[in-house]
Every structure is written in C-alpha cells, then in structure tokens.
Amino acid sequence: MGIVARKEKQKQEIRSLILEESMKLFVEEGFSKVSVRKIAERIQYSPTTLYLYFKDKNEILFYCCESGFKKMLEQNIALALISDPIERLHQMGVNYLNFGLEYPEYYDLMFIQEAPMSALIDMGAGWSSGDQALEALKMIVQDAMDKGLVVPAKVETVAMAVWSMVHGLVSLAIRQRLDKLVPAEDVEKTMHESLDWLLKTMKKA
Amino acid sequence: MGIVARKEKQKQEIRSLILEESMKLFVEEGFSKVSVRKIAERIQYSPTTLYLYFKDKNEILFYCCESGFKKMLEQNIALALISDPIERLHQMGVNYLNFGLEYPEYYDLMFIQEAPMSALIDMGAGWSSGDQALEALKMIVQDAMDKGLVVPAKVETVAMAVWSMVHGLVSLAIRQRLDKLVPAEDVEKTMHESLDWLLKTMKKA
DNA sequence: TTGAAAACTTAACACTGTTAATTAACTTTA
DNA sequence: TAAAGTTAATTAACAGTGTTAAGTTTTCAA
Fold first, then answer.
1. Which residue of B has its CA nearest to A131?
2. What is the band of A155 on the pLDDT scale with cuts at 50, 70, 90?
3. Which of A47, A88, B103, B194 is the most buried (most CB within 10 A)?
4. Which CATH superfamily is domain B56-202 in?
5. What superfamily in CATH does domain A1-54 come from?
6. Of all nucleotides in the shown strands, which has a C1' nearest the CA of A49?
C-alpha cells in the first residue's frame, strides 16, 4: 500500500503546484491574463495535463479563491481580542477594505468574478471558507444587538447591509468607479470615512 | 454640402445599428457571449467593418453603457416629485435595486466590468451620464443635511456610503453571493430590507 | 470617363478553452 | 524476466476570440 500512497501524494503535489503557479500568475498579471497555457508553461507541463487534475479552468480558479479566503481569515484572528462588538465589527470592516485594496486580484476572484461560483455549482460543493466568514459577521451583529448597542433588527438584514457596503466600496474602488466621486488620491481615505460613518450611525445613541 | 451631410448621417446610422444590435445581443445572451463576429453577423457586415466605426470592442461596450445610464436616468425622473429628501433618497435606492435586478447585463457593464472604463481612459472622455447620476445623489444628500434630516457629515462620505451599499447589494446579488447569506428566494426581499434599514438608521431621530 | 477617396471584405496572426487520439511510463501478473 | 494492463502525459485538432494589413469594391468629383 506504500506505492499507491506515494502516488497519491505525488498527485497532490502536482495539484498544489498548479494552484500555486496559477495564483502567482494572476497576482502578477491579473485575472484576465491567466490562461491554461500560461499556467502549463510555468510548471513545464502540457496544457492538457491540467485537465487531468481539474475539471476546467473555473475549478482551478475556485481553489485559488479558497486560498484567498484563508488569507482573509488569518487577518481576522486578532479580532477575537476586541470585546466591544461595534469596535470588533469596525475592525473587521477595516480588515476587509485593506484586504481588498492590498490583494485586488484575489478580491476579484472571491467576490466579483462569476467563474468560481460556476465551478462551485458544477461541483455541488459548498462555499466553505466564504460561509465561515459570513457566519463570523452574523455573530458579531447578533452580539451587538444582544448587548443593546444597535437598534434591534433582523440579523440577516443588518449583516447584508454591512457586507454590501464594504463590498461596494472595495469593488467600486477596484473597478475605478470611486474616483468619479472623489479625486483618486482621496479614494482610500474616503472609503474609510464611509465605513466609520456607517458604524457611528448604526450605533445606538 | 448636402452630400457630405447625408454621408455623415449614414455613418451615424451604421454606428447606431452596431450599438443597437450589440445591446440586444448581450441582453439576450449575456456580456461574455458578445463577440465582434456575432455582432457583425447580425448586422450583415464583415467583422472588420466594426473597426471603421469604433476603436475596439471596449469602445462599443462603452457606448452601450451610456445607453444603460439613459435608461437609468429615465427611471429617476419621477423622483423630482418627492419633496422629502430622505424619501427621495430612499426611492432612488429602490430604483437602483430594481434597475440592477431587471437589467443585470446592463448593470454588469455599467458598474462591474472594467472594459468600459478602459475605453473611457483610452478615449480621454468623461463618464458623462454616470457623473450626472452621481451629482444627483450628492445633491439629495446635501439637501437632507441642509434640512437637518441626517447627522451632518462630509457629503462625499455619505454619498459614497449610500452608493456603495446599493451597489454592493446589486453586484453581490448578480454574482450569486447573497444567497450564501439568505435563501435564494429571500434575497430580493432582504435587499430591500437592508436598504430600508440604512435609510431608517441614518435618519436623525 | 478617368482617378481619387471612401467603404468594405478577405486573409491572416496570435491567442483562448477544451476534447479525442496517441504515446510513454510504470505496475502487476504469468 | 517478459507480457499484459493501468496510469500519466503529450500531440493534434476544433471552434472560437480580438485585431491588423492588404486587397477589393463602391462612390463621387473633376
């Protein structure tokens, strides 16, 4: 049984190699520039070999996406130290904005492109890491309500509102729409001000 | 000078024909399915002819985008009848959500894809209709502040917050991310609840 | 009617994702 | 050890993409 195990391990190594190199590629050159042939060339395999390890290109992107979520969750570990729910929610938002602005290519894949979601549907799998992040958000909102820090409302409604706002900020920024509202050099600052404004506004007086 | 004028008119007619058919195509089959060759086939011209009327594909999409903004602005005409700024802002948001959900392909082009913005940069032109919509938004926010209906803050900050939120809602919905937060059949309803929540929350007690 | 200018097309380039058929490599069995 | 079987990887190809250069047809003025 040692041989079949080694073979399995080798297979996993090539899978990882494909994913690693794909990620490098779209961090370097952007999502639209990633092609199956380019990935193949980097790992010195023929393009069709990738299809032995993944169903199609979307599936490759889906797994890249997963690793993006891991990156994001890492940033949020320190949140547990913040006891005040509002302050915790605020810091979570700040982390979200920073992540989006620092890794726009990852963000694009995770939340803007439809490719990874199509793969997800084809695979019948779950949005595992994404769901995890959303659960964390809902729990913070719930916590804030329980402690009477925000006006009571349906948790999903508020969570959706908050998520949509930070996503809106990041995705509009990434797609160069926000500089239609304020000068380019003020975009990042104003994004944070908008987030601050929301948190301040939703905080019960 | 009659002849040169007629020629110019014919040229404009073909331009319009290209744009009309392009728009039909991506409303029918989606943005990603629109190709230069498909457009050309529909209008019974060779693919390369399109390049006599537009610099590239992005430029075609840019002009389609423009017509999307016109569609959107039409929906907002009735807003002028609403005197209460908060109520007007609310209705503007509702219109925005409805537009996005009703014409997801247009919305995609106008606010999600980067192609039209690239064209805009190449052309050195302005985001004319888009700017107009944003001005309208800022004015309403300003109005609400002047009348003491919301807590004073920088107009750009609040406008950005509101726009980002509705954009976030629509774009996450279009890309099937919101059904990770609530069941698919509840998405639209919850989107509206989130908008309601924001407006209620920002309204000065 | 001829010649220039404008409008349009054909052919081609360098890509894209993906599949079927084929070869190379390794494992197991006789 | 040699043959058979299995797995891994490749080559060739298809049908599509945006775009450019060169050639053809049409239109109009002198």
1. B180
2. very high
3. B194
4. Tetracycline Repressor, domain 2 (1.10.357.10)
5. Homeodomain-like (1.10.10.60)
6. D9
